[in-house]
Amino acid sequence: MNEVHPVLTARGLVKRFGRVIALDGSDLELYPGEVLAVIGDNGAGKSSLIKCLSGAFIPDEGTVELDGAQVSFRNPQDAHTAGIETVYQTLAVAPALDIATNLFLGRERLKPGMLGSILRMVDKKGMRTDARAALDGLGIGTLQDITQAVETLSGGQRQAVAVARAAAFGSKVVILDEPTAALGVKESGHVLQLIRDLRSRGLPVILISHNMPHVFEVADRIHIQRLGRRAAVVTPQTHTMSEAVAIMTGAATA
Amino acid sequence: MVGSDSAVASLTTPSLSPLDRIQHMLHRYPVISPALVLLVSGLVFSLFSNGRFQRPETIGIILQQTAVMATLAVGQTLVILTAGIDLAVGTGMLLTHLVVAKTAVDMGLPAPVALMAGAVAGMALGAFHGLLVTRVKLPPFIVTLGTFYVFNSLGLVYSKAQTVSKEAMGGEQSLLLWTGKGIQIGSMRITVGVLLAIALYFVFWYVLSQTAWGRHVYATGDDPEAARLAGIKVSRVLLSVYIVAGLIYAIGGWVQLGRSLSASSNAATDVNLETITAVVIGGTSLFGGRGRIWGTLVGALIVSVFRIGLNLAGVNVYYENLAIGALILVAVALDQWIRRVGK
After folding, report:
1. Which of A160, B53, B164, B278 has a 20 to 30 A CA-CA distance from A45?
2. Is the ipTM of this complex over 0.95?
3. Which domains does chain B have, with CATH numbers?
4. Which chain B residue has its CA at the smallest distance from A95's CA?
5. Cβ contact (<8 Å) for B4 and A96?
6. pTM of the predicted model, to two decimals?
């Protein structure tokens, strides 16, 4: 892996909230086509780290490089434009809006011609067709109706919509923050399958999770976050779950 | 992958009971229930008013009486869709219509310029709301409760509590009073103001359902954090909504000039709360993110139909507000039930 250049690199990220230091010089590398899991105890800075990569937070110090070029995201839109898509723990879908509207939220496509350029009319039909295709492409075409409100869906279905949105627009990196936390066993299995599908398309994935069996099931490498820094990077082949937990809690070092 | 077939199967939706179906139907088409109320109340009043209610003359009067409130309710709908509320819509409208009348009469500006001045004043009032909500982070309820009093007072000071008369504004031929011009359709008389109000509904139906801005308004009210993470600039959307609502003060003010054929700081006192009533009865959720502009138009008509219908049916006028209040409670209870869909 040493000759391969990382897609995404973070160096010395610092994020403070008043006197609380969420990130204390955190590093991260994501290589092409891999699933990198990020694990850590509550308050270890997992979510802050991810939010600095997705444009939701602006780091106080440190740098982020995408494909070797330094980037500084001021908002989630900047990260989207750069090709980084994030599925947040809170799902970040608008419950009253329908599936297709949610998939294209914040990047609505306008109709071609005068209707779009002058009357600013959105291309509803085209967006619905593409939303359908995006869901079918991930094997989640079982949602009968692309125009039904997201709040009428089950937790797993909502997660599928959020993942489909990330997959449809993430050209460089997809970040998933605790995607299985609110799901049952079957639905979790489905989301893990979605993650594998993304990897097989060549999209690198960052997976933040508390669930060790899930992490060890899909991850190629495991980034262990502790006290706002990277404590170690291990792989499922070289370390057991209990060894990883030991590093996470500070009981052992890599 | 083992188990992936059953995982896919679990993503299908279970079958629904009849009550669930109704809930889903209302969730999807929130205009159904207010439309039914309007239809049924219209039928009932037709039966109990000795045939006076359904006369074209009465319908025309209902439309004329609804125009100002229905116009302002468009702005109220936008604000409520963002989970806000505008308690100052009536006093804001009065202040802008005074600006129009006074700049035309006292300063002698031509009518189109005076109307533009009103539009600018309305947008300034709206921008003031928007900045307090987005920058100072005050709740919209408090912001507009405060400005409700402020605008009322400014209106009184500015007009010295005096009415600007029709004659001073140049008579019924003046563009300022054009919205009061009658249009005869058979024996039904409506005004330009009525048509202006209806046109406004078409414009905002288009804007809300067919443009990205409309979707962002819904998303902002539905879940502002989700909207922000989807890349929507939530503060900018909110600010623009309040500015547009302010512009609608001016349009409502113009309709009011035509309706009363004068400008006065103590006209249209009911309009403040009635716009909220229209929006709520029309099926738009006070919690933001869900509702339809047509529902508001239906809600506005329901308020007028009740007021005039009860009157024509010979019901003691003291019961009018009781009926409308009960409708509000039913509408909000229905909204709570609809919002629990799928839970």
Report:
1. A160
2. no
3. 31-337 (1.10.3470)
4. B222
5. no
6. 0.87
